[in-house]
Amino acid sequence: MKNQKDHIDALITHYLNSRYTDLQKMKELEEWIDISKENLQYFMQQLERSFDINVDKNFNFDQNIAYKKFKDRIQSVEIQHKKTPFRFSLLWRYAAAITLLCIISYFSYWEGRNYIKTHFSNIVVEAPIGSKTKLYLPDGTLVWLNSGSSISYSQGFGVDNRKVALEGEGYFEVTHNEKKPFFVRANGLEVKVLGTKFNFRDYKEDIRATVTLVEGRVILRNLLCNESESILKPDEQAILDKKNAKINIKSITGVNACKWTNGCLFFDEEKLDDIVKELQRSYNLKIYLSNDSLKNMRFYGLFIRQEQNIDEILDDLASTGKIQHKRTAKGIILY
Fold it and tell me: Is the pTM of this model over 0.85?
């Protein structure tokens, strides 16, 4: 089911972002929509999300208009496919005029193209505190944003380059393109890839930034100091200490770093200070440590957010005998 859903998401992305529409993909999407009301509703939700991101907030999304445009696009592409080719004699008749038009338009095109590129605005997608967001970039790259995270990219993404800026945590499955490397820039690190799967975490309030590679290869550039680039292999994690600007690379199980995309919270001998930050973002509440000596305590655990509330998770942590917890008017206190 997951593969089918990803395939449908890719078809919708093609419709939303492709200048030249593939008739076969459009017809496949149309047939899927016609199967059930649920499919139509999902399609409309994706259109509305794209509308909210790319269109002025003063305009409201209209499902009827959106669906009519979709049907009109299919009809237009079908008509183009049915048209008979120009006869050879007609090509000669218009050849001189077209050549002259191309010569006249050439310089105007490049001047206009450069003007448009310099006036692209940025698109920003956010995952509010307590939730996560899934999106596809115009090149088909899949991105998951964790709670309290955001990603921004130019409206011209993919024209000359593929660059995005990340705040917080994101999981990327990058569409391969050797001619246009994919860049992700955060506060302390920049990642360069051709096509791969990796998790990138760099919250402003965290003292460390991490990049974990699941598949492929990534090149890391330290933005905090001038040092040579680092290369990650699968099941390796790069940890940037923001205090001393040093990068340390260690071996881990890469898929554990992206369990959050499936609604899981995984702590692999994590410090309590880091666990508290993650719980605050995930459950949108305040947690306080009664003293600094608790910060460096380490815990292991795997929790499912939809099945376990914050009290159940804290009870599990308290069962180790290391800490206790209580609720107050300010929030939850660990002691």
Answer: no
